[in-house]
Specification:
- The protein is mainly alpha-helical.
- Helix content is about 65%, strand content about 5%.
- It is built from 31 helices and 9 strands.
- A 9-stranded mixed beta sheet has the order 4-3-5-2-6-1-7-8-9, sandwiched between helices.
- Helix 17 packs across helix 21, helix 18 packs across helix 29 and helix 25 packs across helix 27.
- The two termini are about 20 Å apart.
Amino acid sequence: MEILACRRPVLVSILKNRKFIKRCNTHIHNQQRSMSHIMQRRMDRNPLFKINNPQLSRHFAIMRVLSSVLKLRYLVIGSAVGGGVSVSKKYQEWKDSLPDLSWLEDIFPNNNIASTLQTSLKSILDTVQDIDFVKIVEDISPIVTRAATPNSKDYKQKLEISQQEIIEIQLRYQKELEKLEKENKELRKILLLAKNHKMNMRKVKKSLIDMYSELLDELNDYDSNYQTQDHLPRVIVIGDQSSGKTSVLEMIAQARIFPRGAGEMMTRAPVKVTLSEGPYHVAQFKDSAREFDLTKESELAELRKEVEARMKNTVSRGNSVSNEVISMTVRGPGLQRMVLVDLPGIISSVTQGMAPDTRECIRQMSTAYMSNPNAIILCIQDGSVDAERSNVTDLVSQIDPHGRRTILVLTKVDLAEKNMANAERVNKILSGSLFPMKALGYFAVITGKGNQNDSIDSIKDYEENFFRNSKLFRESIGISSQLTTRNLSLAVSDCFWKMVRETVEQQADSFKATRYNLETEWKNNFPRYLELDRDELFEKARGEVLNEVVNLSLVSAKDWEEKLSAELWNGISHYIIENVYLPAGYSVNQTNSTASFNTMVDIKLKQWAEEQLPRKSINIGWAVLKDMFKTMFEENQNQKLQASDEILETLKTAVIDEALKRHSWEDKALEMLRVIQLNTLEDRCIKDKHNWDQAAQFLTSTLENNLKVTDGLLREMVGPSNYEKWFYWQSSTEEQTKRNNIKYELENLLHSNPTHSNLLSKDEQITISNNLKQKNGTPYELDDIWQTWYLVYRRHYFKIALENAQNIKKQFYHYQESNGLQNEYYDIEMFWRITRMIKVTANVLRQQITNRELRRLHKELKEVLDEYSQNIEMKCKLLTGRRVTLVEELNKVKQIQEKLEDFIQALNKEK
């Protein structure tokens, strides 16, 4: 490890040799540009050429040109020689610092890898060693001297030849540089593979660019409009539709990763592409674990389909573009580390099939991304069309008028060459004087050969050959560093990381201030609460809701059965009285036979138990379970009011209501309950005094309640009594007075015949009507007499039945001696059967609740909670308020701040 630590800087210096060679190449380019332009500047600045005398001007011009050229010759030769000596010295120092490569054998367990690495490094050293920079200067010096001597008659011809020779030398060494870069790329791949093998499948530490990409994702979720916090750099790729915008990004990523269309808008949503270096050329989406091998055409096709499908999914119905970001990472050897965002192309008009607001939506989206003050704008311009037709340059110049973060890229220059007559237009474009905008840099690239199926390697070869052989660009001396996507990628990466280093600490300071403000707000407004976010509050509510079911299982059997018995009687009492007891009792008065009572009761109870009673009982049991659950929940909340969290109440109530709504009683309990109830209702023998007293008490209380209800209904019909009129100042309406008169006549009828049946004959109705007419002078309707008779006779029957029930309360021993053969006890036997049926049913329902239904309810509560936990909208609806949003915002700021600090540490280590 010590050997690795001490020799790592040396290895890094070897791998970064292309930067040194690039600086040499830049120095040569500077000398060439100074040679071609210094003569013109000297002549333009000479005031002698402005003298009106043509002859005198001609003589002075010749002398001035000779003088300038002579000075230029010495200046150029001196600069070139001095530069060459400096470069040679730097190269010698670097070569002396190179170590022995034999130590690599200690790192790699495989001798083949070590030998391959040694061979690659030695080939690079041999290639660099063959470059004699002093010889380069010596080759250039006579050419510059000849080009600077205007004594011959064919001065222009020699100057053109000299320029041609310079360009050939430049291209030759450019080719050597590209060769070195390719070897360096292969070497880096070997090193990365060896490093992965050395780590023995341990978890790989995230690279710097991956950390930065995740940080951008966090910031995008926190502030998608770039208005308050997210000012970190990213490269925004923007251009007119079909200007080659996406192709530029693909050339930088070195893979055809986006779907293509012939003139059709394909980019419908922002695509964030994170470029990083890796041993294999692969692509991966942020939310997927699958890696697409970009070296295989089949997987490239699948990747393009996936991108197209994701874009369609992000676009909602009725829209053509979306603001939802599609994030992906592309790794590969030699890729420049940066984050690029591909936006939909700027369009001039909306075509058929597009949403009417598509043009404005794209402009707003592009403006929002470019408004980030630290975003690098990669402005793509189609070089094959006139500059006046550009839409994107106007938009970019409005956002970045000084061009401090804009890079202009001219695409399709191979097509542009056919339309350009000279190099002046190219010089204007690449110098920034043609377009109405300013930029940090200007580049010319070729991203295709006219066939969308061409590979990236073939396009790169075509691009290099074009710029090497193009007459148009060969005449434009000094712009070679502004050509090819390789140079563009290097420039964009350098600009990107420079801006990242300048802004990331400011961003961290901004989030520190935001965190302090949010923490202060929490301390001032919510000092008694823990900082729980929405998910943590949900889990707290989950535990409390499930505990309620546990508390429900602690209810005693006695409490369950008392509640069930009371609710069962409330549910069936109306049917028992109206459909069973009164019809059977009325039949006794009509037939004067008590045997008919038991017969009718048996028939009606059996039919009821077979058809309606079991389902009715289960519904009542389910209602009791629901009511007990809610009652206990409310009681517990009232008891824990001070300790409970009121923000959870809405959620807990919604979960309980939803679970109870979904819950249904087990159907298999229905048939079992039917059999038990039928068997219970068949037995009408009262065996002991305790049961007799229970039945008598139940009968008495039932009759008293019904008598009370009937008295109330009758009072409403006939109005207040004379006592109430005198002492409570109440009065009767005319209708109530009529009903009271009818009531008086009907009571007289029953007084004269207490055993009268429940039916009032037609003759009796007419007689009563005539009597009332004679007494009051007004006619009475027969329907009014019948309606009043129903309540009067009902009350009369309940009074008689209540007297009989009170009399037979103490006759159990008489009933026991007769073995139940006497029929005068028919009503108490019926109510004993009902009492026993209610008791048995309550016991069965209680067992079903405690043994089965509580477990099923607990399971359904869990299912509802699980569904709500995955439903973000539901959680936001049920858990809301400033307290919740403040905690989530504070946690988000803390998370972003931590990632910013980790990234800054990693950035400083790399530096």
